[in-house]
Amino acid sequence: MRNSITEVAGVLVGHATRIGDGALTGTTAVLFPPGTLSTVDVRGGAPATRDTAALDPRHGGREVRGVVLTGGSAYGLAAADGAARELGSFVPAAALFDLGRGGDFHARPGPEEGAEAVRAAGVEFAQGNVGAGTGALNATMRGGLGTASATLPGGVVVGAVAVLNAVGPSVDPDTGLPFAAHLGLPGEFPAYQGDDLDAARIAGHAPPFNTVIGVIATNARLPRLFALANAAQDGLATAVRPAHGLTDGDAVFAATTGTHDAADPDEVLAAARRVFARALVHGLLRAESTTTSWGRLAAYRELYPRTAAEYRGN
User: Fold this and answer.
1) CA–CA distance, 39 with 215 (Å, rounded to integer)
2) Does 161 map to a domain?
3) pLDDT, tens digit (0-9, with 9 covering 90-100), for 151-197
4) Residue 157: domain span
5) Do strands 290-292 and 251-261 pair parallel, antiparallel, or not at all (unpaired)?
6) What's the pLDDT at 174?
7) Span 22-65, pLDDT tens digits
8) Rounded mean pLDDT of the chain?
């Protein structure tokens, strides 16, 4: 088990990452097999999306070849142009705010990054500060891109890829543990305690706009696909507190390949909540500290070294 969204057969993920020369940003493409239906749930007061109206849940979803998750705020949505040319069809997209975090406000993804991410798509892909998670922040520490999955009885699989770039924190200040760590699979996020739980808060910038973007996918046939996106947003709210604020633009694409019957749709939705939250925890724990001309961006691993050492990354 890869514990990845690519456990859903036919789903592929690829990145384009830009670091250096003022850039700290990137793009991630999530590709679907033919026949996959998709919809989207967008919340918060500051979304940056493209072609999401075409996935209006009132129509039960629409067949798409893939979606783009990207940095660069609204400017970065241009990455979908390159992805669309590679795939030969329209590609919905959602962007997060990472402008200027590498030092150059104008260093952001475009069509070249979108095309590169599509060409790089495969079953195996990196997590952390790569692709859309390259310049991600979570409150005052680094965010990142993560993935997770769950297999249910009957062969139903639910997987997620999510980028943590939220105003609200995802770490409990009283324990030093990620809010959603308790949802992990056995051995995924061990229960641990350390002496570094009073780690000093870093003096960082306060980004004006942040967001969480991601994809929740399954092979299950569901009566209401939009409910899958809703469930993932619930998982987001478990991992990030508070979520869906005025400066957030939280967008979750839901997709189903429809190859398996779901004996209990509610069980699939419950798994989606947990899987999306777990993916966000992986994004947090895979992130790495860096320093750019914008400032010092410290990661969870640096601020909570003892607890982070227990993370197995599986």
Assistant:
1) 10
2) yes
3) 998 899 999 999 999 887 788 877 778 888 888 888 888 743 333 33
4) 5-56+63-309
5) unpaired
6) 72
7) 999 999 999 999 999 999 999 988 899 999 999 988 877 899 99
8) 89
Amino acid present at 47: P
Residue 191 lies in a domain: yes
Residue 80 lies inside a defined structural domain of this protein: yes
Give the CATH number for residue 26: 3.60.70.12
**Strand pairing category for 137-138 and 66-70:** unpaired
In a domain, 202, yes or no: yes
Peptide bond into 47 cis (omega under 30): no
Token pair for 239: 């991992």
In percent, how much of the chain has pLDDT > 70? 92
Q: How many domains does the chain have?
A: 1
The pLDDT confidence band at residue 206, using thresholds 50, 70 and 90, is very low
Residue 92: cis peptide before it, omega within 30 degrees of 0: no
Residue 56 to residues 77, 79, 231, 254, 268, Cα–Cα distance (Å): 19, 22, 17, 12, 21
Q: State the residue for tokens 């508070």.
A: 242
Tokens encoding 241: 């507190």
The answer to whether 254 and 271 are in contact (CB under 8 A) is: no
Rounded Cα distance, 29 and 118, in Å: 6
Higher pLDDT, 185 or 236: 236
For 7, 69, 99, 237, 285, the CA distances from 209, given in Å and listed in that order, are 32, 16, 10, 17, 22
Q: How far apart are the first and last CA of the chain?
A: 9
The token duo for 182 is: 């308790």
